[in-house]
Amino acid sequence: MKILFLWLVAAVSVFCVDIKIATYNVENLFDAKNDGSEYKDFVVGKSEWNEKKASAKFKAVSAKIKELNADIIALQEIENEAILKELMKEAGYKYFVFSKGKNAPIGLGLLSKIKPVKSEKIIIPNVKTRDVLRADFVVSENINFSLFALHFPARKNPIKQRRAAFLTLKSAIDGGKSNIVLGDFNTPFDDKDGLLEDLALSKGLENLWRTVPRDERYSHVGSEAIDQILLSRDIFKNAKDFKIRRDEKGEISDHFALSFTLSDNTAATASATIDELYGRKVKLPKLVKNVVVTQKDRAGFTINDGDRGIYVYEPKSDVELGSKIDVVVTALSEYKGNLEISSYYVAKLIGKENIEKFMIGDIKNAKVGDVVRQISGKIRGNRLVGNFGEIKFYDRDKILKDKEEITLKGVRIKIYKNELQLAVER
Which end of the chain is more exposed for a tag (fewer CB within 10 A), N or C? Predict the structure, then answer.
């Protein structure tokens, strides 16, 4: 995702946002382990499929995904969640959603560099097919959409089943909102059954195939456009660079990857302080400027704007301790009484700061979100007692012993049952 700052006006930041979104049916990405649900051509020991072929296929698919370099990509025909996680790691993504039916040979998934605000699996009743994946994203005031990823039944299936899949999708889409619907529809652009046309007309969607010449409308080695990207009209007007990444020999997959860029040259996000976030009356997204990462653990990190701190929930974050950044907060949530940032992105990396300037040395006036520079005392049950008095104490890994004299550095303060507590989390 490219974010280029143009100017700052009063308390509103105006910048350019380009988000690249793709869909790709990778054609039977299986591992070399027999789970009992594989197609017969991918049973190790009973077919030609083996560790070497599985590794070569995985490397080819991950290389293609890295080449596409999309911020969000929908993938079809993935054997299991473990493979999707490996793709996520290999291709440099941070978030995933996966779905596979019980005893089904393949599933589908989403990889994203942007954290979804929420996601869900939409089951198609009474039809043996894949679920529809829905993920909601908030990037700026102008880029706020629901993405639906799918892999529908092939045309060899009865029309009744195919129609049921489309009807389920239709009922899940709110036509009054911004929507992106993409994936392997197994239904051609010039669908004679009218399923695609009915979906588009009823939900106000435009098909990106309409933007390319007729002789270029194919996404499969069979020369058909059975993979689709449909956009609500407000998104369609800001879509550009629709591309079909063809591998004419079908060496990786019998499908070709599709991608487009969603562009907003006037994305505006009003600024807020961390203290204003705690007020809960702000309308998200909000730009919080000049924050410093003052604490980090395996579940997330704390940021401070010089006046107040707040925890950001993001396991395995790559944000570095001491980084000074501008962040756009897209979602807040509460966990055990503590307000947290649950979705965000870094709008600007400013540099590095001495984190001790953003910590507190005296806990007498401590607030939730503060990080203590250093504190010493003796553990007594669930409390730390010292010259400062006492404070509730939480050791996530329970490795500190009762009555032990300890000195702690860089410990965050949160609240538990309406009482402040020191949280030792690694």
Answer: C
pLDDT tens track for 61-118:
999 999 999 999 999 999 999 999 999 999 999 899 999 988 899 999 999 998 899 9
Number of helices (H), then strands (E), in the chain: 6, 23
DSSP state of 255: B
The DSSP annotation for 270-315 comes to EB--HHHHHTT-PPSPEEEEEEEEEEEETTEEEEE-SS-EEEEE-T
CA atoms within 13 A on the CB side of 339: 18
Rounded CA-CA distance 359/378 in Å is 22
What is residue 162's DSSP assignment?
H
Averaged pLDDT for residues 392-420: 85
Tokens of 162: 């195919």
Distances (CA, A) of 348 to 8, 141, 186: 13, 17, 41
At residue 417, φ and ψ (nearest 5 deg) are: 50, 50
**φ/ψ of residue 275, rounded to 5:** -60, -35
SS3 169: helix
Q: What does the alpha-carbon distance between residue 53 and residue 390 come to, in Å, rounded to a whole number?
A: 61
Q: What would the pLDDT profile of 351-368 be if each residue is shown by its tens digit?
A: 999 999 999 998 888 999
Residues whose CB is less than 8 angstroms from the CB of residue 275 and which lie 6 or more positions away in sequence, other chains included: 307, 308
pLDDT band at 266 (very low <50, low <70, confident <90, very high): low
Please tell me the distance from the alpha carbon of residue 274 to that of residue 86, in angstroms, as a whole number: 36
From residue 328, alpha-carbon distances to 14, 286, 325, 425 in Å are 12, 5, 10, 25
φ, ψ of residue 27 in degrees (nearest 5): 60, 90
Evaluate whether 103 touches 144 at the Cβ level (below 8 Å).
Answer: no
Query: How far lies 397's CA from each of 45, 110, 247, 374, in Å?
Result: 44, 33, 50, 20
